[in-house]
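Hi R.,

Here's the chain you asked about this morning:
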Amino acid sequence: MSSKQTGRKNMRRIETTFDKLKAQKKKALIPYIMAGDPDLETTKLLILEIERSGADILELGVPFSDPIADGPTIQMASERAIKSGTNLKKVMALVKNLRKDGLSIPIIIMTYYNIIFQYGIDKFPANAVSSGIDGVIIPDLPPEEASEFLKHSKKPGLDTIFLLAPTSTEDRIKKVVSSAKGFIYYVSMTGITGAKLSNLSTVKSRISEIRQHTGLPVAVGFGISKEEEAKKISGWADGVIVGSALVKIINENSGKRVLFSKVGKFIKSLKGAIAG
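And here is the predicted structure, written out as tokens:
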């Protein structure tokens, strides 16, 4: 099988996952963790535990010195990961090794454009796909400026996932959905990750509005930390993204024997809440 064929096969993981869940009338649980927090070996074991515990897709952060969308919890995780020597190349190597070990859930990396630019936007998508990465979220790359990156991503089949916010206009929604692959990431509030979720009724109406313009799944993130919030939002969205609450558990239990059991318990509780 050619590398091109392999890439296309791999890049169906996100689509296939959402299709399978839809057929089962279930929703996707998409946890986020920071790669390299506290180190890459722990990250590897955490990813395996997260998959075992029922997560459907994993969002894996790449540490960056100046994150714009992340709140204090994830910013501190990024700082710890940088101190552990984690970078994009090492994250890609980690995913490649996990695929060799049998990891099957889709992996999305969340990173910033400067990191990809330094790596090389012409070679990053193909190398990411060959490493077993299914998609990428780049918060500081708007679709208006993404044409070159999307051109390089199309051939290997790397899904580029764009964000929409409560402030997004109808024109903005149309622009984002025309460029996006995989799913739409709806940011449930203005601000940063880790803030408290307040107006759930707005989330419901905005998801409806987005659905008028795309057949892609819509996943909701930012501010979701409790089972009841995940359950409520999963009634409207196709997926629920949980980051800061999980990163906090990892930090509080780093180096302790209970780390993996606590992470597993948290993932299972969220998956149970949104099971359908």
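One quick note: Strands lie at 28-34, 58-61, 107-110, 135-137, 159-161, 163-164, 184-187, 218-221, 239-242.

Cheers,
M.
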